[in-house]
Each structure stands twice: as C-alpha cells, then as structure tokens.
Amino acid sequence: MTESWVNSAERIGADLHLELSGPGGRRAALIRALREAVRGGRLAPGTRLPPYRSLAADLGVARNTVADAYAELVAEGWLTARQGSGTRVAERAEPLRHAARVPVKAPPRARGPRHDLRQGRPDASAFPRAAWAASYRRALQAAPNEAFGPGDPAGRRELREALTEYLARARGVRTEPDRIVICSGFAHALRLLFGQDGGGVLHGPLGVEAYGLGFHRGLLAAAGVRTVPLPLDEHGARVERLGRERAVLLTPAHQFPTGGPLHAERRSAVIDWARARGGVILEDDYDGEFRYDRKPVGAVQGLDPERVIHIGSVSKSLSPALRLGWMVLPERYVDAVLAAKGEREAWASVPDQLALADFVVSGSYDRHVRRMRQRYRRRRDRLVEALAAHAPHVEVTGIAAGLHAVLRLPPGTERSAVKAAAWQGVALDGLADFRHPQATDTAADTAAYDGLVVGYATPSEHAYGAALEALCAALPPG
Ligand SMILES: Cc1ncc(COP(=O)(O)O)c(C=O)c1O
Q: Ligand 1 centroid vs 409 CA: distance in angstroms?
C-alpha cells in the first residue's frame, strides 16, 4: 500500500463508518459492519485496523466488544491477527465455509456525510461516560427527597453554587448563586430573554455581529426582535457603531465564526455604551474554555456585572445533548427571567443539574476540559500542518481558540470549494452561510472574504486524518 501523509490506521477510520444498528446487540452489529466493510472492498486487504482501545472509544463500546468482534472475524477468515503487527484485513479475505452459509443482511445505509467538519460540535466519542456516570450516581445518592419533586425555576442551588465558584475561577465572572438562572442552553436563554412577539424581558433592536449563527438570528426574528448587524474587523465587532439599540449580543472571547477575541479597547467601549445608554450586553461565552496559544480572555461580565448578561452552556465543553446552560444576570433582571421561566423548572432536568454540580465540584469538569483542550489543540495543529503541506496558499485564521478554524480562500472560490468538499464527502460551511442578510461589508472588514469554516472537533480520533485528506483534496489550487 502506498504511504501517504495520513497513517494507515487513520486512513481506514474514514472508511469504517460503522453504524452499530440492527439486531443482536453491539457485538453482533460491529461484526456485521466490519464484515460488510471487508466484503464490499471498503477495507482493502492488508489494511491495519485500529487498536481495540481506540475503536472502542470512538464507538462508545467496551474494549472487549471490539476484541470479540475481531476474534470472530479472524475465525471467519476476514481478518488476521499477528503478534506485533496488529489486526489486519486478510490478504485474500474470504469467508470460511461455515461463515459463507450465514446469510448477511445488507447493513443500513450510513447516514450523513463521510467526513463531518461542520462547526459547532464537540467530539461525541470523547464524552466522559465513566466520570459522568460516577457524578450521576453520587448526585442521586446524595440528593434529598425534595429534589425529585417539582424543580425551582432558578435551578438547583448546588449547581448555582458550583458555577459561581467555577465561573469566577475559570472565566473571571463576578456573581453569586442568586444571580444565576439555569436554562437548557444558549438558545433557551435567548427564548427566555426575548419571549415571543415582543413579550420578553428584553426588547430590540438588538445589535449583533455581522457574522453569527443564522439559527440564533432566526429565533430572534421569530420573537419579533429586529437585529442590526455590526461590521467586524481585526479587533472584533465595531461596537462604536452602536446607537439606538437597547441591547447587543457579542461573542467576545472568540468571535463566532471568524475566531478573534474582542479587543480590550472594544470591551471597554461596549461597557461605556451600555452605561451611557442604559443598554445591556449579552455575552455568548460558548467556547471560552478552549484557548490554545493566547492568554485566557476573561469574560466581559467581569468588567461590569450590572451591564452584562453572561450566558454559557455545556454544549461545547461536554455535549449539546445534555441541554444544560446558565445565565448570569444583573440583579435587575433576575425576577423577570424567573417569571419568564414559570413556576416550576420545565426544561433543565434536575438530576442532570445535580450531576453537573458534582461533576464541577469533584474536579471532573476541569479534568475533562484540560483533556479536550489538548486533544483539540493537536487536531488544530494537524489541520495547520496538513494545509501547510498540501494547500500552502490557503491561510488559516481564528485558530488561537475554539473548536473551529476559518480557511481564507482566493476571492470568488467559496461556493465552488463548498461544493468540491461535498463531492469529497466532506460536510462544512462557507463563511457566507453565517452572514447577516443586512450586513454591509467593506474592504476594511476582515470578515468580508471567502472562507470555509472547518470544525475540527467533530470527527472521532481515528477518522480525523482521512477527513483532513479529503478536505485538502477539495481546496482550490494555488
Ligand atoms: C455561537 C454559539 N453560541 C452558543 C452555542 C451553544 O448553544 P446551545 O447552548 O443552545 O447548545 C453554540 C453551539 O454550541 C454556538 O455555536
């Protein structure tokens, strides 16, 4: 087999695309999926399979399940196992007679793209199952009976106390438990704050960054809130353009999606604007923990806790499936937000809140974030190295923090690059997908360029190398 810049264990990762579904449990599903991959030629003879441990981690199964599946396929003649050279696809992979008689149903078609480089998702295979389960168990054992009755709309005190300490230490947030309201993530916070048909705690017009998540703009539009785009330059949002807006929504630690921090002068300027105009700053701190090359950028909230609503969630740090987040509020908004939540907690599961409190207090959250920071930093470095080797004309930006980077492309090539990527099986977005429809870019606005937004956290470890290879193949020539 010819060697490429991606090692063989990674190459096979992309082709595996194992969907563990169908009858007979996970072991049987894994055997079926691997057998079909060999039989269909997706795993070429001689290909080395990932070690038990990596495949088990990627698929979220026990190591023994992978070991058993490999052993079964060795017995059937599809794989070979030799001391020192790992498990490989047999050179003439043919079933033993008894295996050939077993009818093998076609596996279900793999859903979605082959390589998922969309932004916004952490590596789902890295969810800390064991530590989370331990926190959950401890939390359930320690919880008083009343915890299983209707929940307080502010959220569990245990979690609010844990977050008060954590956010002060890790993000420079100044608050106390009574100013925190638990919610089910950033999107829920927006819904609570802006309500429906103008009936919320806050009102528009709302200043927003000219590039941001269309999903959030859609939520705001559905609530009848007019959003006014602020241009971006190399220092972040041009907050000096704020005028009659009553609130502004910013991603100060890591502009989403272009990737830079809001410059210190702009941070002070936006606080000055809020003080002078009675406005409020919504700080979306969606991935503040993931910083690599630069000094930590603390929360803007720390500059003036009475002018900033600081919003965070575990969607990037742990999993978007948990649906847990928090709002750190100026005192004047607490009652109104609680009223918007209603009499009882209707969104954020109380046992999950208690588990998260334990996860934070026990240090598991810090350990997980540290581990993921290292992993994502390595991935970011591999992305940069791959581009330097295969597409040196493509500049990578926004890489000092976060879970995604922006590749700056030659003018006029973004759409065709997104299409070429799709053709290579790579799902990702172009920068234009994030642009506010009323944004007026000028030459001075650094966001006014063609670019690809590459989420490097999404693929599991063994699939990442192949995803990078496919990405590089899709980039326009220099
Ligand atoms: C810009 C931005 N803000 C906030 C979030 C978090 O959203 P939520 O907490 O609703 O999952 C995300 C996605 O994780 C995001 O990309």
A: 26
